[in-house]
Specification:
Helix content is 5%, strand content 52%. With 429 residues, the protein is mainly beta. β28 and β29 form a beta hairpin. The chain is globular. The strands form 7 sheets. Strands 1-2-29-28-27 form a 5-stranded antiparallel sheet. It has a 4-stranded antiparallel sheet with strand order 3-4-5-6, with no helix packed on it.
Amino acid sequence: MYSPYCPTKISQPYISRIAICLLWCLLTACNENTNISPSKSFNKIYNESSFSDFQAIDVVQTQDEGYIILGTIENSFAEQNDVPYILRIDKEGNYLWDTKLDKQLEAYISPIPNLKANQGNYHFFCFKKEGLKPALLKINDESKKVEEVRVYGQMSGDLAYVSDTQDNGMLLTLLSESCNPDNDLQTRNIELFKLSPTFDIQWRNCYPYSIFVPRDPVSRRVNYNFFINGNFNASGREYFFTTFLGQDNSTILIFTDHQGKVQGEARLPFVINSMAHINNNQFAMTFVKQKDLNIMSNAVFNLNSQTSPNLIGSTFHEINSQARAITKKMTLANKEVTIIASTLENIPIRIYAFDAKVTTTDLLRGSLTLGRGNPYEIADVIPSADGGLTIVANTLVGDRFKRIAVLKVSATDTNNFVNSCLSTGTCNE
């Protein structure tokens, strides 16, 4: 079990008192605060006495409005390297259970986003150490266990990304070994797998693009920031999009039909590190160019040609371009917005909201800064059932141990954040 937490109630989302709480926890024990209303903001770090490192990569909200966080454990002394980790908390951020003592999970490594949530069932992909084959695991909330669903012996290569499809299936990006007979560890070819709602392989396609495979030097896990996929509708047709890292800091973006046949392609002279479909042939994304992070909330692509648009984003020098960036379309405060979540160079988390319906210019609705004074790095952000925002982040305790944090923004503060441009007169509605 975890040792006592350091819960901190936040009266204003722009001010974090976590540093004070951590200092207090070093001197004495923190009492769990169970009187936090889920309609208000809270901020918690899940600390404990072990020497293991815990890192979050994804989060979903459960049917009881709590959360399941997918992450990893690193502890070289215990031979736990990139082992999947599940943290379950309630809607107020209180710890319910986790899997750090589950020795059976040590048979797996390298979980990838995204967690699939469907009517109380939660699944994720990782590798099974034996044979190094992709495995699908299920989180059993009732038994507080993680169960193996199946191992895909047909797949050979590095897992990069998985997303949901409109038929409740999944689209899996694999950096394939079977598509590349030379078996070069630095270059691979993209292979897409379409899985049915029952997780059977419906089709698989190789694509003749030479890609670069960046790896973590410790875990050897592929950096999934540069491999993104998803599905969308445009002009009455269903498409899939897939991004991958090309040579010389470039990105290759392909659009396929629902059977995986390439319809369009764009080769871009920068590195896309987050992307989301907004409307028709319009996308929001962040990209790194000349070591700076750029934001485009309305990039327009030709989905059925080989033409590459000339895209010019807005440069945000204050954002750490080496950290993860997140782009998502959400409905917040009854408005369709594009959320860009990032980590600043000077520690805090910054979230931007753009108007998803405005297509002629990047209309910034507002920005929100969280976690001042603590070394946060964004892991994921989702809308919460009460109308607020939930941010999962990674942080350090004692300037040494990696821990998971959850920052909950209330519905009131989220509404003010999304509509902050109205008070300044910069929104034209």
